[in-house]
Amino acid sequence: ANHEGVGMDQKVDRFKIPELAVLGGAKKTGARAIVIGSGFGGLAAAIRLAVKGYEVTVLERLDSPGGRAYVHRRNGYTFDAGPTIITAPFLLEELWALCGRDMKDDIDLRLMDPFYQVRFADGRIFHYTGDPEKMRAEVAKFEPSDLPGYERFLEEAEKCYKLGFEELGDFCFQSLGDLAKAFPSLVKMRAWNNLYSLVAKHIKNPQLREVMSFHPLLIGGNPFSVTAVYSLINALERKWGVHSVMGGTGKLIQGLVKLLNEQGVEVRYNSTVRKINIENNHVTGVTLENGQVLYSDLVVSNADTAWTYKNLIDAKYRKVWTDKKVDNGKYSMSLFVWYFGTKKKYPEIPHHMMLLGERYKTLLDDIFKKHHLAKDFSLYLHRPTATDPSMAPEGCDTFYVLSPVPHLDSGTDWQTVAESYRKAIANMLESTVMPDLQANITESFMMTPQDFKDRLLSHKGAAFGLEPLLTQSAWFRPHNRSEDIPGLYMVGASTHPGAGIPGVLSSAKALDSVIEPVVNTYLNQARHAAT
């Protein structure tokens, strides 16, 4: 037998047509799936496979779930390692509904107001909110004559949201024919233009241009290079809001793991995959670092796609994603993240704060094009205790501050540079928005591009996989169903549609559309055997 999702070494007597239970607990039927990685994409894929009837095992190389959404707990402080901005909550609610549950029973989401506070080097502040009237007032505060252009930009962003997110976000690109179907929408969105040029077409004030174009940086993209389609993020936030989770983003991860446990899915920690096994050009399972072989009918990788192809699959099976193609890709920026706790509170710091430096385009050129670690920076400052004081000891605050930096092609020796870079950021924060910061720090640790490579197995230490250029998006991005190997699938930031929690959840939904429920798989096999 050689059918999608079923190994060739299985016998026909396994193909008795099973019953498939209703949503919320599909009966298992013997078809097995392995998911590599327990980030948002991997957990979402595992849930979708489980309710289709697969016996699912999730393999996580770290000691707890989350991947980039790992949680660090130190002396009463809770630090979310990665994503902290929650948009498109309906994609999460759908996972609970698939399991016959209501997300509100497990997760307490809070709408942010404002979404972000954007602070410029000259001290001017833009309060970025979901309230249309407040947003118009903020725009007028900077440049009243830009209000008509701002409205036109919103119309463009809404069009891109409908065409780029609602129509194509969870569409599984598999062939050139799929690209042809999407082409009219790409034309309507003028996808060949970059986002900054779209913003600049309608808005003249330089600082307002920065406010309306910084969003792709949250998913690893340069506003001067990514397709204008990413204006959809602006519309997505206005439509669904920006949320935070009480207890931190890690509470979402815990909730998803709980759903999996209720479905009978095992999540195995400290389990690093050494190799994806292939026989007769079809996936048969994986081999772990300790030599253990696990068999499955399909494998879903939530690991970095470039790493997956280059390090887990023998080159002889890769006609599309060769080592040369992987290495020649243009990869996203990386991140320097400093996590710290303070023994005093900073009530003037909001939950989400952007501190933009004096340079914009030239700084991004240094990061994305020259791969040069500059001495200046723009920062995202995260203070979850502004919403949830329980994430720090009483009277204290939890923070992380994130600086976009080049990936490892910069040649930076982060073991040598990290502390001086951290101190420069601390000095900047202390001189602007956090007086006496360094005298009040009680916890402190960092994550560098080298950690993205060594801990999270990201190619070149890039934090978001391939840069989301037009020529590395949609059909041109690594496919959700592998172009090279039957039975191998991809989810997460480095496959279609891309990074960010909505993106990785949509990647699992795209994969869901091309994997049949077990009952259909067995029915097809039974029919094939009968003939």
Detailed description of the structure:
- There is one protein chain.
- The protein is α/β, with parallel strands linked by helices.
- Helices cover 34% and strands 17% of the residues.
- Helix 1 runs parallel beside helix 9 (250-262) and helix 6 (195-202) packs across helix 7.
- The two termini are 12 Å apart.
- Mean pLDDT is 90; it is low at 1-27.
Question: Secondary-structure blueprint of this entry?
Answer:
Layout: E1 32-36, H1 40-51, E2 55-59, E3 71-74, E4 77-80, H2 89-98, E5 109-111, E6 116-119, E7 125-128, H3 132-142, H4 147-167, H5 176-188, H6 195-202, H7 206-213, H8 232-240, E8 243-245, H9 250-262, E9 266-268, E10 273-279, E11 282-288, E12 293-295, E13 298-301, H10 305-312, H11 323-328, E14 334-342, E15 352-355, H12 361-369, E16 379-382, E17 397-405, H13 414-432, E18 441-447, H14 449-454, E19 488-490, H15 501-512, H16 518-530
Parallel strand pairs: 1-2, 1-13, 2-9, 6-15, 13-19
Antiparallel strand pairs: 3-4, 5-8, 6-7, 10-11, 11-12, 14-17, 14-18, 15-16, 16-17
